[in-house]
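Researcher: I'm preparing a figure for a lab meeting and need a structural model of a single chain. I don't have an experimental structure, so a prediction will have to do for now. The sequence is pasted below. Please return the structure as tokens so I can convert it later.
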Amino acid sequence: MRRALLAITGLAASTTALVVFKGSPGATQVAQNLPTAQPVNPTAPGADPAAPGTDPAGEVATPSKTADPPVSPKPGKTTARPSGTKTTTKAPSTPRTTKAAQPTTRRVTGNGFDNEYGYVQVQIVVSGNRIVEAVALSLPSGGESDIHSGDVRDRYDGSGGEVVQKQNANLNTVSGATETSNSYRQSLRSAIEQAF
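Model: Understood. Here is the structure written out token by token.
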């Protein structure tokens, strides 16, 4: 009777150890390599009738039914995740580059002015708070006016003209084109007032 009790206790202990090994993370492989307990066949030839598993009458004792052993997980899969760990993958963010704000460029047209030789109107191109170009949209034409208007255009207009250099309407008068120079300055002044 004592042997039967020891055998059952040993079987229960090895089953408990097997469950503990299989249930703990990282021990799956170790638990799969443990030998399993084999039941003893008391009716085998040469078995001792007084051996554990038989009663004194010689009949085979039926061991108490134990729970089925746990099913091992499929290889390569884990059934439990250690608590407190969370696996997340986040793509690294690319650094944002900011460009310096580019000044806006705009065209501003001044009022037109008539003089005894013709009509004068000026347009300026402004970037940020600077005049970057000046253009005469209309100048007197015909006869000598063409020559004088050309001189005014050459001195005042463009991105390298006197308007861009001085950044105001205080321009020098073009010799021989006083009226056209004055009208140009008036139109330029009205454009600057609108722009700034």
